[in-house]
Design brief:
six-stranded antiparallel beta sheet, globular, peroxidase, four-stranded antiparallel beta sheet, binds protoporphyrin IX containing FE, single chain, 328 residues, disordered C terminus, heme binding, oxidoreductase, Dimeric_a/b-barrel
Length: 328
């Protein structure tokens, strides 16, 4: 069973990125096994508010937690440097993507998680996000429209037969962006629409013939040579502090393989052809970037059914390559 990756858009979110301190692996693994139960306990008090939590595991934590082969697509986030813009890579062992219709539920679940992990983790980032009026981001555009839905969404986010031991899992990339909202708001709306590739009020896409090649929509639309469009599932959230003049978008994208998101990022930051960078970056600075593997809910609760072949551990080695999945 996949974790709760595919949901209707949430109203409130907490993104929590943690590093696990050396020696705290058992505590972290135990907490991961209990996250679904904690989410049920907190969420059941207000079922209509649809609390959910997805947990991702970063590359450098994997071997510290599990004596198992690395999921095929799991590696540290690869930063990017284009001629004008940079996507930094920042460390993260664990991601908690906590969603609900109201922030109190997100807050309470994160509180319960942190109670369990106190003294065992360093907090890299905690961001409380929200949807700005009708599904908009702080640039004022409706965000999420072209997400796939139904079976297309399942196919987009789910690891399949290419990595059988981890089939049903997913990958997630997060990046925190800060906007230069003064510069953005100084642009006429027609120019903002050229940057995004959609109309602002109606959210209707600008036809391909009129769309700027460096618009966000043009740059992030990826089509394979055989004409298949490669999709991801996003759920960006607005965050910020008007008092501190901080205005941001927290990007989160799920995919069955990180390659698709990485290709989008390459097109955004470096450009294809090089130099055709995404104009959204002229008003948005990426300040974090991390990649995580999202195991199935069953794996988190009980990773032991994925066991090493008895012969493999006879010499004390990890037996990577001869590990197999066996459900008992
Ligand atoms: C500053 C951060 C970002 C903002 C404010 C933003 C905003 C938007 C908006 C307003 C749309 C149009 C409506 C929609 O279909 O959702 C969009 C589309 C899209 N964005 Fe972003 N986005 C950001 C970052 C990213 C990143 C980092 C990626 C991928 C690595 C990405 C991938 C996409 C994709 C795939 C689409 C749909 C393109 C299509 O098929 O029409 N976005 N984004």
């Amino acid at each position: 069973m996949v974790q709760d990756v595919l949901r209707e858009p949430a109203k409130a979110v907490t993104f929590l990125v943690l590093d696990v301190r050396p020696g705290s692996e058992d505590t972290a693994r135990d907490l991961l096994a209990d996250v679904a139960g904690l989410t049920r306990a907190v969420g059941f008090r207000v079922p209509d508010d649809r609390l959910s939590c997805v947990v991702g595991i970063g590359a450098s934590l994997w071997h510290r937690l599990y004596r198992l082969p690395v999921p095929r697509g799991l590696h540290p986030f690869r930063g990017l440097s284009g001629a004008r813009h940079t996507a930094p890579a920042t460390h993260g062992d664990l991601l908690f993507h906590v969603r609900a219709r109201s922030l109190d539920l997100c807050f309470e679940l994160v509180r319960q998680v942190m109670r369990r992990l106190a003294g065992h983790v360093n907090v890299r980032d905690e961001v409380q996000g929200f949807k700005y009026f009708d599904e908009r981001d702080l640039l004022g555009f409706v965000d999420g429209t072209e997400n796939p839905s139904g079976p297309d969404a399942v196919a987009a986010v789910t690891i399949g037969g290419e990595d059988p031991a981890y089939a049903g899992g997913s990958y997630v990339i997060v990046q925190k962006y800060l906007h230069d909202l003064d510069a953005w708001q100084a642009l006429p709306v027609a120019e903002q629409e050229r940057v995004i590739g959609r109309h602002k009020l109606s959210d209707i896409e600008i036809p391909d013939a009129d769309k700027a090649p460096n618009s966000h929509v043009a740059v992030t639309t990826i089509v394979d040579p055989d004409g298949t469009e490669r999709q991801i599932v996003r759920e960006n959230m607005a965050f910020g502090s008007p008092a501190a003049a901080e205005f941001g978008t927290y990007f989160i994208g799920y995919a069955g393989t990180p390659d698709v998101i990485e290709r989008m990022l390459h097109r955004m930051f470096v450009g294809e052809p090089p130099g055709n960078h995404d104009r959204i970056l002229d008003f948005s600075t990426a300040v974090t970037g991390s990649l995580f593997f999202v195991p199935t809910a069953e794996f988190l609760e009980d990773p032991s059914p994925i066991t090493s072949h008895p012969a493999a551990s006879a010499d004390g080695s990890l037996g990577i390559g001869s590990l197999r999945r066996s459900r008992t």
